[in-house]
Amino acid sequence: MLSRLASQRLIEVRQAFRLSAQVYRSFSTALNYHIDGPDNNPDLPWEFSEANKAKVKGILSHYPSNYKQSGVIPLLDLAQQQHGGWLPVSAMNAVAKVVGVAPIRVYEVATFYSMFNRSKVGKYHLLVCGTTPCMICGSREIEGALLKHLGVERNEVTKDGLFSVGEMECMGSCVNAPMIAVADYTNGSEGYTYNYYEDVTTQRVVEIVEMLRRGEKPPVGTQNPKRIMSGPEGGNTTLLSDPKPPACRDLDAC
Amino acid sequence: MGLGLLTSRTLKSSRILHSQYSRFRPIVTKPKLQSPDASSAAAAAPQPETTPSPPKKPVGGARIHFTNPDDVIEVFVDGFPVKIPKGMTVLQACEIAGVDIPRFCYHSRLSIAGNCRMCLVEVEKSPKPVASCAMPALPGMKIKTDTPLAKKAREGVMEFLLMNHPLDCPICDQGGECDLQDQSMAFGSDRGRFTEMKRSVVDKNLGPLVKTVMTRCIQCTRCVRFATEVAGVQDLGMLGRGSGEEIGTYVEKLMTSELSGNVIDICPVGALTSKPFAFKARNWELKGTETIDVTDAVGSNIRIDSRGPEVMRILPRLNEDINEEWISDKTRFCYDGLKRQRLNDPMIRGADGRFKAVSWRDALAVVAEVALHVKPEEIVGIAGQLSDAESMMALKDLLNRMGSNNVWCEGTGTNPSADLRYRYLMNSSIAGLEKADVFLLVGTQPRYEAAMINARIRKTVRASNAKVGYIGPPADFNYDYQHLGVGPKTLLEIAEGRHSFCSAILNAKNPAIIVGSGLFEREDKDAIFYAAETIAKNGNVIRPDWNGFNVLLLSAAQAAALDLGLVPESSSSIESAKFLYIMGADDVNLDKVPADAFVVYQGHHGDRSVYRANVILPSAAYSEKEGTYENTEGRTQQTLPAVPTVGDARDDWKIIRALSEVSRICLPYDTLLSLRSRMRTVAPNLLHVDEIEPATFGPSLSIDCTQEINLTPFKAAVENFYMTNSVTRASKIMAQCSAMLLKE
């Protein structure tokens, strides 16, 4: 009895100390269902551009003709680049038509992957890595600085339509944590780039944002001047000499 | 499912045993419930724990066919050897061994998803429990279903499923027939360790039939697979990922399938429930009556659940040969039509044109008086599309004894031919359609005329890539088909071998031709049938081992009517009728009936023909009477009364029998049995219940047709799938469906 009361109390205390009220974190930029809007409804016409139609053909050529639906992910990616970083429902319908499946099969894929944005994003979509190594190295602060500087919420687009901030799972730069990735949709699908800015600090991300705003191209990779790529700060500290050959390889000595 | 039934049955029987303590219901202690042998006793029928000979019977009548004797493998389920064909899954092997494995996502008629993980079993030499529904059984596999490991694994799965499942069983319509509820009795804990917030999901609008409470969904994806595979509408999908996963249509869309009601049955939880049945009754209050459906010519096997005098809902019954385990929405939801627009008293139209309720004695006296004063050839009888064989027999006998032979069933056309049974039956049988590899649909739209037969065709098309050619007005079927043409011109081209589809029929192993019975109404129907028979002859459609010449009837009464010889003597008798006896026929054109004709309407609904009637004799609907019906493949089946009749209504045949007595003709049968023995002399097959009586003769007996074919295109036989007879026209749900679904 007493132990049950105690455990109940513990649960209450734990709940009171829980940091935010938000218990459900979605990485996706939109809801799992579609709501018609002026810029996103099935009646809007949407088509791949002429240049991209050739790319579509190229993508589909990778798959057997009876398994065209295998190309749905690269095609959705192409459609997203063409449409300024997000997928309206009519673009998904267009992809469904290209691969010859029911639209719902494309919606399933697009809602599954958080990299497909189903609501509007900025020309520069800033993705802050939120996985453990980056989080330990302060990705929450990075995101906070970005949001504060741009004056937006997560997944909200700035008034000028230039920036939006999202979160992404590990992008594999843990050695240079914390990092952000910037998806650049300013030049359509031809000039689409996807750049990593690593070893960022709260000041540096703001600088990067300002450089992007001015149209400059900040140097990609590590932002720590003392590091070369993912090498340690200030040069190598170990394995400085040539490796000694292992004794056992010396067959004569054996 | 089976497990749930067994659980409830064991619980029930134990309650009966303990009835002396009924005032204090014993609380079953947890350790007993949680111990492995208690759950296995609940999961399977009690059986002696001895090693020799498997004591359990296969679950749910599971059958095995060994197509190739080399493909037999032996596995051991809980120590008992079972012989199964190669390619079966572990779960199926367990079912044949008589062990019911708990499951949510697995459904024998759908593809395997393997995502609920409830069916975990232990397999010897396997490091982890395996999902039995997705694991193929291998020779010599030693499967253990009731070990502590398997039980613990299932308990873990159950805990995760219950984590996000709301605790709203008291207000959930699935309560009492919920797989999750039943299985949590065996594998669930009485307390949870989950202290976070439960997730909630926005409900979806799937139309007027299916109510959604998506928070209850456990993501088994049965509904998605059903919609995609059986119903053929790719609307539902699994959206999102992880804990945010939900079933939905993404864009706002109604489920426009005529089989959509079946997702209610296959949903293992209360996420998809019946909208018309919502909060109406609990399943344990209902009395189930196993009967058959008469809203189309398929004769789907149904169970009418009633409470007191009211039909509460209609559910499908398993019949592999007819409807498998699905029924169409019309069958399932037409029942509220049985409560509206009913005729409950005999009525006579007075001089002011208004009906006045009278006693049976007066009504029958008036009818008999008129009938005795008209000339025999001016007497006409029309049976309706919901009439049972007994009443049609009685009607025909009555009119014959009055001297008239002008009696027919609506929908069989002005000049029906009942001489050759193959000309009005589905000769390859409904289940036999699965063997066909080419279909030629002539003037028929099975999707709207007989949704269950369309589901068979779709199943065949999916399974074996069967080719479908269609002649008729543009239609939207839920499978790929080739639209060959709109009218008899194309049919003639195929008959003469000038059409490209001929080669498909010639190359097919089992070609099937399906002719719609909407063509019965055409003047040139003999010529059309002759053309279709020519195709059958040229394409080798009728062979000793395969008869692919099919006629798809529209209504439940037609086959029996033609078997009983309800064929009018003259095709224009209705124009000179002085005494018209309408037995539930609401789709006949009564414009040509002379103004001075006396019209008797015997039926259960105040529908179209009542406007012209002089006397109304109320009769029982199909849910209230015992009657024989023959479906489109010639299978005789019987309905059973589920609810009492409304008001002063009587069975159809009894009314006719009473009328014959008042008219001093006196039909020689007083009971249903003696009426049936009268039926035996006319059509003995109508007494062989649940059997198909195949047509004896083929087209070899038909004479050459000299009739000129009329080139006007075929018409759609069914305009509105949801409203085809007096019951469905009176139904509010069907009206909502036609308003919301057909407009899309």
TrEMBL record, chain A:
Entry note: cofactor: Binds 1 [2Fe-2S] cluster.
Organism of origin: Gossypium australe
Lineage: Eukaryota, Viridiplantae, Streptophyta, Embryophyta, Tracheophyta
Keyword Chloroplast: no
Annotated residues for binding of [2Fe-2S] cluster: 129, 134, 170, 174
Top-level taxon in the UniProt lineage: Eukaryota
Protein's UniProt name: NADH dehydrogenase [ubiquinone] flavoprotein 2, mitochondrial-like
Molecular function terms, GO-annotated: 2 iron, 2 sulfur cluster binding; metal ion binding; NADH dehydrogenase activity
Gene Ontology biological process terms from the UniProt entry: mitochondrial electron transport, NADH to ubiquinone
Gene Ontology cellular-component annotations: mitochondrion
Entry keywords, A to Z: 2Fe-2S, Iron, Iron-sulfur, Metal-binding, Ubiquinone
From TrEMBL, chain B:
Annotated GO CC locations: mitochondrial inner membrane
Keyword Phosphoprotein set for record: no
Keywords annotated in UniProt: 2Fe-2S, 4Fe-4S, Electron transport, Iron, Iron-sulfur, Membrane, Metal-binding, Mitochondrion, Mitochondrion inner membrane, NAD, Oxidoreductase, Respiratory chain, Transit peptide, Translocase, Transport, Ubiquinone
UniProt xrefs under PANTHER family: NADH-UBIQUINONE OXIDOREDUCTASE 75 KDA SUBUNIT, MITOCHONDRIAL (PTHR43105:SF13), RESPIRATORY NITRATE REDUCTASE (PTHR43105)
Cross-referenced InterPro entries: 2Fe-2S_ferredoxin-like_sf (IPR036010), 2Fe-2S_ferredoxin-type (IPR001041), Mopterin_OxRdtase (IPR006656), Mopterin_OxRdtase_4Fe-4S_dom (IPR006963), NADH_UbQ_OxRdtase_75kDa_su_CS (IPR000283), NADH_UbQ_OxRdtase_ferredoxin (IPR054351), NADH_UbQ_OxRdtase_Gsu (IPR010228), NADH_UbQ_OxRdtase_Gsu_4Fe4S-bd (IPR019574)
Record function comment: Core subunit of the mitochondrial membrane respiratory chain NADH dehydrogenase (Complex I) that is believed to belong to the minimal assembly required for catalysis. Complex I functions in the transfer of electrons from NADH to the respiratory chain. The immediate electron acceptor for the enzyme is believed to be ubiquinone. This is the largest subunit of complex I and it is a component of the iron-sulfur (IP) fragment of the enzyme. It may form part of the active site crevice where NADH is oxidized.
Enzyme class at the top of the EC tree: translocase
Superkingdom, taxonomy of origin: Eukaryota
Biased composition (Low complexity): 34-48
Gene3D superfamilies per the UniProt record, alphabetical: 3.10.20.740, 3.30.70.20, 3.40.50.740, Dimethylsulfoxide Reductase, domain 2
Family in the record: Belongs to the complex I 75 kDa subunit family.
This protein's name: NADH dehydrogenase [ubiquinone] iron-sulfur protein 1, mitochondrial
Domain 4Fe-4S His(Cys)3-ligated-type: 149-188
Name of the gene this protein is made from: nuo78
Residue stretches making up the 4Fe-4S Mo/W bis-MGD-type domain: 286-342
CC cofactor: [2Fe-2S] cluster; [4Fe-4S] cluster
